[in-house]
Write a structure and sequence with these properties.
Helices cover 72% and strands 0% of the residues. The protein is mostly helical and 234 residues long. It has one domain. α8 packs parallel to α10. The protein is globular. The N terminus and C terminus are likely disordered.
Amino acid sequence: MGSKRTPPVVPWIRTWRLWGFLLLAMATGAFTASAVATPYFPWDLQVSLSLQAIALPCLEQVSLLLHYAGRPPGVVVEVLTVAAALFVLRQRQSALLALALLIPNAMNQVVKAIIDRPRPDPDLVQVLVQSNSSTFPSGHMVHFTILFGLLLYLAARSSQRGATKGALAVLLGCILLAIGASRIYLGAHWASDVLGGFLWGLLYLWGILYVYHRFEHLSLRAKRPEGHAQEESR
């Protein structure tokens, strides 16, 4: 008796990557819609006043340093540095993936212009840095979320020990939290802008990695012998 054949399926629809992306997109869209409806939430003001009440030596200087690190010149330098390092390590596909991070950084400027949410009001909080662009989602959070997320993704695929990967995740997570807090401390963003930047950053990163995996899968299939490709298509 011949083996029973299973009905054909569309693999990319069945993968957790696609469904995860769709769920994240819905959550990001819902939060964005709520942020568009109001200049700031009541808890935004509470978080801002609480952070700005903290008096620590060099806090403003560190926050300004993180501020300039996330400005457009710094963004380009950081992405090119990561891509160059990966290229030197002969990880050309990963280097191209790093360069692709410039795309969501540019896209986010369009998203911010469309949403057009106003920056924090100087009459409500102390504003230590000025910006002419709209505030939602935070560009700093978008950039560093996708950059750190890519580094964690590449580390997860490497042969490094689990303890090393865990330490890197904790380190980058702490830096990301510090960046988010610094945006609020400087009066550049509301807390909801920072959270929105994190969600949009995850969405951009997930989309890039999903497309990358699709091309990677198709490339591997193209390199297989014809017989194996025919067997998979049955």
